[in-house]
Structure prediction request, 352 residues.
Amino acid sequence: MKFGILVNEGPYQHQASDSAYQFVVAALAKGHEIYRVFFYNDGVNNANRLVEPPQDDRNITQQWSKLAADHGIDLVVCVAAALRRGIKEEILAPGFRISGLGQLVEAGIKADRLVVFGD
Amino acid sequence: MAVLHTTNKSPLQTRDLESCLRLSRSGCGILLMEDAVYGALKGTAESAKLAEAAKARKIYVLGPDLAARGFTPEHLVQGVKVVDYSGFVDLAVEYHHVQAWV
Amino acid sequence: MSGMEENEGGTDKVKRFMFLNRKAPYGTIYALESLEVVLIGAAFDQNVSMVFVDDGVYQLKKGQQTKDIGQKNFSPTYRALEDYDIEKLYVEQESLEARGLTADDLLVPVEVLPSAALGALMEEQDVVLSF
Prediction:
């Protein structure tokens, strides 16, 4: 089955991004396809490659980047929400790309299920 | 076409679960995740509401979130089923669509 | 049945999209950014509805004056939705009543539905985007 994922909260402040990540890992392990992960609202902060959590904590941005590298997952950051929050191409972590809200709607159309992780 | 509802906040603190119960229909599934796992515990001021709702709905709790918060399945209201992330994925497949009460 | 129509030039069936709005405006950005998705979504020729539940009904309150909080009043946009062919705005009756409001307090015509009917409508969706 094809899943679309929407992440609406930034990393660390809220568990939403962690939950979405665990869901995606589990879905991949079961042989499902992740059509796209779309980052919106403060969720765009997940794409910031400048984050530096303490060494004994997980690096949420790097976790997403690794998933993209290992499984070719499309990580899309909403351009309007990103610009509002200073997330630009030059600080984008590997595997993320910036695009429009149409990518979210398209994920809703193309995926069999859209699962929302937010506050 | 039954819906899998997800809710992620404690019913002792917010009214999200209450709204989810008011608008969800018999035959649906409700997954309590993140801070919503507190809503699945027995012996709280909200336990009775969940037990009542569980008569016509399937109530699931995300086990990793429950364990992270220091509780085990024996603390749950009767009839609540524990799933892991893999089980969450299975539920998302099984139900027609997933509706988040964020 | 509208749910089985096909897009022009494509084979995807038209899906039923519901935007579920449960948060008040201004205190957080969810209401505004939800509206931005709705406006984009309208261009995809899907079956789109907006639903207002809980404090989400306050998004539609008449007479919003935001000048003194330094934020843009985006409430007139709800009145423009019909120009985008989004004419299905549903408000939960219980949420309105719990807040001492009636449809007359809202800045746009809506269909007020009791929770049972709204719950049934939710079951008929394909995609629910919650903000």
Observations:
- Confidence is low (pLDDT under 50) at residues 1-9 of chain C.
- The two ends of chain C are 28 Å apart (CA to CA).
